[in-house]
Design brief:
Layout (H helix, E strand, L loop, with lengths): L1 H55 L4 H5 L7 H16 L19 E7 L11 E5 L6 E2 L7 E5 L4 E3 L5 E4 L3 E11 L5 E11 L4
Antiparallel strand pairs: 1-2, 1-7, 2-3, 4-5, 4-6, 7-8
Helix pairs in contact: 1-3
């Protein structure tokens, strides 16, 4: 009887020793996955925020000289793309992920430059760009303040569950990226930002 107990104790000990590495591996994978997702969220939010702010700073020189600063749309869009590329490890022209990038595919984005009114400076009143439409499409403009409804794959005039308001010329963007998981599969992350010109 004593001998049987010793053998059974050995089996239990072996099973415990075999399951410990599995538990440790599961904990490490969970922590590593959370860290990777958190890191990609922080990098993406920073990239979108910096890109929108930099785009908003692309003020038309003539409008600035007359103390009515308006955003130069094409320049703002170009700068926004450059900031995204630099911060997320993307090709500066195609936005294809480079080897060091943690992103799996070209980001999907919508970028709006909203100046709100007709003007004598030749500045576009309102235009929407995207990764599918880099030339931009003119959109409706109704002065200020203007609400923008933010969705995971678009921005439209109006309000929704997630709305931002511009009360002066500025830019609004939403970006969606696909990040590979540590294990199988991938995760989509969406971040948005808005910035406006403060004119004293």
């Amino acid at each position: 009887m004593k001998r049987f107990r010793d053998e059974r104790g050995s089996i239990v000990s072996v099973l415990i020793l075999l399951t410990i590495p599995v538990f440790v591996w599961a904990i490490l994978i969970t922590l590593d996955h959370s860290s990777a997702i958190g890191s990609s969220d922080i990098n993406l939010q920073q990239a979108v925020t910096q890109g929108v702010r930099a785009g908003t700073m692309c003020v038309n020189k003539t409008s600035q000289a007359y103390n009515e600063p308006l955003v130069e749309a094409d320049t703002a869009h170009m700068i926004f793309r450059q900031i995204l590329a630099r911060n997320l490890g993307l090709d500066s022209i195609t936005l294809e992920p480079l080897e060091r990038s943690g992103i799996k595919a070209v980001p999907e984005y919508t970028f709006i430059v909203y100046n709100g009114l007709d003007n004598p400076y030749g500045v576009i009143p309102a235009i929407k760009y995207s990764n599918y439409d880099q030339d931009g499409t003119l959109i409706e403009y109704n002065g200020f303040p203007q609400d923008f409804a933010i969705y995971t794959d678009d921005i439209v005039l109006g309000s929704s569950d997630l709305t931002t308001t511009l009360d002066s010329p500025g830019c609004v963007a939403v970006v969606k990226v696909t990040v590979p998981n540590i294990g199988p599969g991938e995760t989509e992350t969406v971040r948005w930002a808005a910035a406006k010109i403060f004119n004293k």
